[in-house]
Write a structure and sequence with these properties.
seven-stranded antiparallel beta sheet
Length: 119
């Protein structure tokens, strides 16, 4: 199973699940493109990225650092790649077997009280 979860904090009144104008695209897709391109979004707040990344490393100590993020891989459970900006943290999960890894990710992220957008 593949899954992407983006954690961020929209400003009050912003709903990433709403469609943009007459388009079929959700606001979250446009926001994701912006934060992935390291563009600052006026409708998202900054989040404590350093603290979040430290918590992820603590929960998944076998991570491998890459140029723009880090990854974690387990032959039996699957893996994920983490990227971030000052306004988001994204987990791109791949080859997941069961829900164990996702449950661990969401448990790590829960104390930060950040809504997630999935794709």
């Amino acid at each position: 199973m593949s899954y992407r979860a983006i954690f961020w904090r929209p400003k009050s009144g912003i709903d990433p699940w709403l469609k943009v104008g007459s388009s079929t695209e959700r606001l979250g897709e446009a926001l994701f493109r912006d934060v992935r391109a390291k563009k600052h979004s006026a409708v998202l707040e900054n989040i404590p990225v350093e603290t979040i990344i430290a918590a992820v490393h603590q929960a998944f100590p076998e991570t491998s650092t890459q140029k723009d993020g880090f990854s974690w891989d387990d032959n039996a459970l699957g893996g994920f790649i983490v990227t971030w900006s000052p306004q988001h943290v994204s987990f791109c999960c791949f080859d997941l077997v069961g829900d164990d890894v996702l449950e661990r990710i969401f448990a790590v992220m829960e104390p930060f009280n950040l809504p997630h957008y999935d794709r």
